[in-house]
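User: Second chain of the day. Same drill as before.
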Amino acid sequence: MKWILIGNGNTGKKEYQLIQDDLVLVVMKYNPEHHSLRINFQGQHQVYFMETLGYTNRIALKNVYGIDVGKFSRQRNHTGRLEINREIFDYHIVDNNQPKLIIHQHDQQQPLVVCQLSSIPVREWSSYEEAGLVLSLCSYATIPVEKQRQQPR
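Assistant: Same format as last time:
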């Protein structure tokens, strides 16, 4: 799996796609003006709004009704934690020739999911973009296996 930056238009909105075997698994759209995320996969559509929590490395996640549903924290070295819907995910980004996003849930030894970040300039991300990519990947990785097997036609 790998994240691809598809659109970075004049409006500043960015569209990312999670691709595996030439199949689009997840589409994540980030709007920097509104600090909003739109995540689409398997017929599910999620919308989140993000607010900084005092420090630039802590972000509150709110649903479309403005209710807190989680929080995201990021460290300087591209590691951090996502807490959403009573689930906790730790992540880190290995930034080398082939940057990878690695997410752990319960077992720190066994990752929940690993994906490449091939065409994405990791060093230029905002905390909000990083939160969106981590949230999108966690949402997709934790859907029941039966739904993952039923790919859209």
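Residues 145-153 have pLDDT under 50 and may be disordered.

User: Great, on to the next one.
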